[in-house]
Amino acid sequence: MRKFWLIFSQAVTISLAALFVVVTLRPDLVSWSARNGGIVTVREAADGPGNRAGMTSLSPAAKKAMPSVVNIFTSKDVKVPRHPFMDDPLFRRFFGDQLDGDTQHSSSLGSGVIVGPEGYILTNHHVIEAADEIELVLADGRKVPARIVGTDPETDLGCSKSTSLIFPRSPSVILKSFRSATWCWRSATRSVSDRR
Question: How deeply is 74 buried, as exposed, middle or buried, from its count of CB atoms within 10 A (0-12, 13-18, 19+)?
């Protein structure tokens, strides 16, 4: 019985391999691919209110929320680790101390949402983490500086604030649904009260 099963499985495998080669190289030899002359007709549904019953557009919501979306540019100076060759006296003789303690300027880009007229911006922790400088670019092209108010690495949430301008605000209906906006305000007030 075992020998019969082995022969059967090998025959099926070889047959499927041969069928694959034939269908790939000469599809006209296989009868099911030649139905309807091999022509596929694609028709577009007619436009009309009845045909788009389940489809809605997010465009109006995006237009309302667009003034509240900001690009966040951050920069920080990162200390470059010392190269292991700097411990070699021969290497130090030629290069001296020029590679010791170098700092490298690092920048990153992210996005955020303005969650209040006071200038609080909700973003990700990894966007503003350890940033020396934060610059916000508003939807209308204005550039304003900001500072870190609070971050939570565990949930990857961050909150920053800019006091230089009065910002537009998302519709209150949208803000009420965001519990993270509440977190941003709470972390901001916690951060301010910790400094006092």
Answer: buried
Q: pTM for the whole thing?
A: 0.53
Residues 118 and 161 sit within 8 Å (Cβ to Cβ): yes
Cβ atoms of residues 156 and 124 within 8 Å: yes
SS3 105: strand
Cα–Cα distances (Å) from 127 to 22, 28, 89, 101, 134, in that order, read: 54, 56, 41, 25, 10
Q: What is the pLDDT of residues 91-115, one digit of tens each?
A: 777 777 666 667 788 888 999 988 8
Residue 124 in contact with residue 138, Cβ under 8 Å?
no
- Separation CA 80–CA 15 (nearest Å): 61
Question: CA-to-CA distance for 192 and 196, rounded, in angstroms?
Answer: 7
